[in-house]
Every structure is written in C-alpha cells, then in structure tokens.
Amino acid sequence: MKIDAHIHYNSTKTNLLEYGVKKDIGYLSIVTDVPGFPSVDDQLKTVVNLKKAYGDYLNFTTTFSCRAWGSQKWLETSLNTIKKSLDMGAIGVKIWKNIGMSIQDKNGHYVMIDHPSFEPIFKYLEENDVVVLGHNGEPRNCWLPMDEMTVESDRDYFAAHPEYHMYLHPEIPDYDQQLEARNKVLKRHPKLRFVGLHLASLEWDVAKVAAWLDYHPLAMVDLAERICHLQYQTLTHWQKVYDFFINYQDRIIYGTDFIMHHDQEVSGLNAYLDDRYQLDWDFFAKDNTMTAPEVKGTFKGLGLPPSVLQKIYTTNAKNTYRI
C-alpha cells in the first residue's frame, strides 16, 4: 500500500476512499482549523465515521482551534480537544499557519508559535510522544514580488488572492520570523517528534531543508503541494535534488494536500487522481525528460531507487505516524 499522507477529508462522500481501495492507496486526513473548512468537531466526526468503514485505508490527525485564543478557558478546551481526539484514534496534532499570520493579541500584535500560551500544549505533546505536524509560514514566494516567484502555481494563486500575498502586507511577521518562531519551539522541546509539512516551508532550496533536518534530528518533512518546487530546482541543480533524496530518504513523506470537500465533483475524480499520482510518480521513479504545469521548461525525473521510493511512499509515513 502506498500512502498519501496529507489530505483533508471534509466530506461524507466516499469516492476518494473507494479509489484508494481500488488502487491500494491509504490516506492520512489532517484535521485543520481553516476558514471555509467544517468545524474541527465536524471534521473529526467525518473521519472517525469513515475510518470505521474503511479501516487502514484512512487515518487522521487532530488539531485545536485558536478562534477563542486569549479567553480564560481556551487552553483547557484545547487540551481537552487533543486528549479526546487521541482517544478517538487521532495519530498526531496539526499546528497551522494562522498562528503567526492571523491571530493577534489585544494590542494588535501577531501571536507567534513560540508564544508562552502554547507551551503547555507542546509540553503535553512532547511528554506523551505525540507527533506534531507543523504548517508554519508559507512558501518563500509568498513574500516575493510576482516577477520573482519561481513556480507558476504560486504566481497564479497570489495574483488571484492578493490578500494572501505577504509581499503586499509588510505588517505581518515576515518569512524568516515565521520559521524562527517554529525553530525556537523545537529547541525548547528537543524530544518533540515533528513533521515540517510542505518541506518545512523551506521548499525553495533542498540544501536549506537538509540543514534544518540536520539541526532537528527527530524532525521529518512532507512533500505536500511542494513537489513543483523540487521540479523547478532540477532545471539547474538536478544532482543536488537527487542527492537530497538519497541522503534523507528516511525523513521524507509523500503527500498531496488534496481536499475532498462537499462540493467536490466526483465524475472526473478518478481521472484527476490518476493523472496527479502518475505525474508525481514519474518525477520520482523515472529519469525521463518531462514537464509539469507549474514549471516553465522541461526537467529530468529523479529516477530514485525502488528502496527509496518505498520509504517515501510508505515506510516513512508508517513509522512516523505509527500506522
């Protein structure tokens, strides 16, 4: 079984799981407190019910809401949510970018992930050996002007959503501040098992990812929605990207960040997934010249050994999330 270890299952529709059974793909659904998503409770209810029907083809992580951050009972409520979710079968806890990029204190200061209010949560997770999944900050492109962005998908997205283009919002803590706050938390909690989602927001340079992994020996990274950044780097530094996967083959987890939502069109879902998974597989498994919609120009696939592919697509997720 391959594992797509980063999706969001926000629908009672079972089409994605039926596809997974047919193709022998397991999923990790990451519950996240995102505006526009169902509530945390509703997300948990959905994945718990689906897991009862689909067993090992679906696992899930939990999170806590920051919508009442700063209130008297916020911490107690958050810890209770985490504990109840773990009892329900959650296998990790997600920390999202709203911490650092949207939550503000009463003085209008942005609340970073290293704020003292979060310390009891990290202490509990460290002491109980619960893996933390961190989406901290955004791609470096988010803080760059449009003409300096590296991949087409970022240019298209931030052109359509200027409210999320941090280059236009200098009042929000910048790229380096977001990652520095995360790294301070990891330094305070050296036994915390941590997955830096989206290549730990260091997607623009595999050497930076490697240095971060070296500094945090218990950390892992996942590839969700950042594979195009690796493809972009292979245009000029193929060997560097290849060597990164060889040297860190035990610390990289495959995922897509696919969202299964209530309005998801299901008629073309199988064809879409076939194309998406095949394009990713071709990049990692073959060494042919290829193209991708997000990258200008042609690049060469990595042609990784089967043993490395097995780790990236299956073993590392199983070991990290104890599936």
UniProtKB/TrEMBL annotation:
Mind telling me which SUPFAM superfamilies this protein's record contains? Metallo-dependent hydrolases
Pfam families the record matches: Amidohydro_2 (PF04909)
Q: Name one GO molecular function term.
A: hydrolase activity
Keywords from UniProt, A to Z, are: Hydrolase
Kindly indicate whether the keyword Hydrolase belongs to this entry. Answer: yes
Source superkingdom: Bacteria
| InterPro entries referenced in this protein's UniProt entry, alphabetically | Amidohydro-rel (IPR006680), Metal_Hydrolase (IPR032466)
Ranges for domain Amidohydrolase-related come to 74-323
What is the recorded name of this protein?
Answer: Amidohydrolase
- From which organism does this entry originate? Maribacter orientalis
